[in-house]
Amino acid sequence: MNTETDSEPSDAEIAVEPNKKKPKFDRSIVEGPLSSAVWKIAWPTMLTNAIAGMQGIVDHVLVGNLVGYKANAAIGISFQIFLVVIVFIASIFTGMSVLVARFAGAHEPEKVNRTVYQAFLTAVFIAVGIMAPVGYFVAPFLLDFVSSDVEVKAEALPFLRITFVFSFGLLIYFMTSGALRSAGDAKTPMILGVVMTILNLLLNIVFIRGLGPIPAYGTMGSAIGTSIATGLVGLYAIYKMWSGGWVVGFPRGQGWAPDWKVIRSLFKFGLPTGFQGIAMNIGGVLMLSFIGSLAESAAAQAAYAVSYTQLFSLITWTSVGLMGAAAAVAGQNIGAGHPDRAYAAVNTAARFGLIGSAFLGFFFFFFPAQLLAIFGMTDPQAVAIGVQLMRVLAFSGLFISVALTYTGGLQGTGDTKSPLYISIISQVIIPLGICFAINRFGTLEPIHIWLAILAGHVTRCALSVMRFLQGKWRHITVDIEQTAAPN
User: Fold this and answer.
1) φ, ψ for residue 19 (rounded to 5)?
2) Coil/strand/helix, residue 68
3) pLDDT of residue 106
4) Using CA of residue 380, residue 385, residue 387, residue 388, what is the dihedral sign?
5) Residue 122 vs residue 78, higher pLDDT
6) How far is CA 430 from CA 32, 190, 275, 287, in A?
7) pLDDT computed for residue 314 by the predictor
8) How far apart (Å, rounded) are the C-alpha atoms in residues 23 and 155?
9) How far does the chain reach from its first CA to its final CA, in angstroms?
10) What kind and span of H or E run contains 273?
């Protein structure tokens, strides 16, 4: 049981002062047991991400069995391209999360809400004014860069265009989830994520296979179902933030115009994460170009899409949940003036991540063919390459799970630049350098690409842990208090 503080009045005090409310934020994050605090944020996020990952798996299973393995490749390369853009755009939400966690830890709800509203305005402008029109027209050129297979590109183009044009709901969902988690509420994003995934699953089955008067759209149907599901959840999130039903919401009495000082602060902390995402995903796209250059390119791209993009996401998405927990708990404790608790929280999250990735890695290593068969992958060449990749990923997951939790610790405390530099080295220079050297001086084979990915993950883990242990994040300050205060 938590002891009462000046910020948490007793029941007797509330009875005497009926207009005085209890704090909105969960103070156990900055006062209670650390393992419980980390797990409280982590498990709903991990569950949400795992369910979302299962949705992607279901999409691949459906298109793989109904359309063919080239449809798997089409969704895989389209998703990789979209990630390059969406991760950069969503960087403003990392900046938002840094500020929200600090202000929640310091118990300043007005500043939390002002930050969230400015992030919302920015997300709307980017989704509608930039991503939709630009994404539609550049999609063919992006696909030409990552694939030479005409059939794969024909399947991928409508999927990618629909995903870009109707990205609004997904951005709002990411923004809302990040704000709620940073403020200490991870259960509401979990509920939103589960509802969105169920809607997505049902709609995708309808639009991929067809039902009644609705024709079978195949690969494109997956994008249609996802866009409708994310759009509905995004609209509901806007309603809840407007009505004030959550721990975060839109501010009252502070004006509705953009606050450029706050927006600049969002980008100050968020842009390094955006460039980090670009570096990582451009590295992924360039890796796809190496895969596309192989003699067995279609089979290798399908194996990559299923093994790395989907099955490995069971590790990365759960690790991303722990990364978010590490960021939220560390950020709130820094805001509350408890840097030692922030340090211990990140170490705790890393231990959780290592255990989870070891469990999943066991199945990756010993039962890869059985996992690939779920996706309808029966082509002997694709299966052989996929089994090879799965066994490498069984070890790679151990390193990436630890790396992501320490990345969360750095970002949550305001050090968003170090992960950028680490990602450039580990996700671009090292793996692509290995592939380029082998391709230049020898014959590039799929196993060389898979081992290059492993080398990048090992490097990212080592550098992330070393940077966090240096402790320079303890001295980072957040300086927008005056601009975020009520008018």
Assistant:
1) -85, -10
2) coil
3) 86
4) positive
5) 122
6) 41, 36, 17, 12
7) 83
8) 52
9) 37
10) helix 260-292
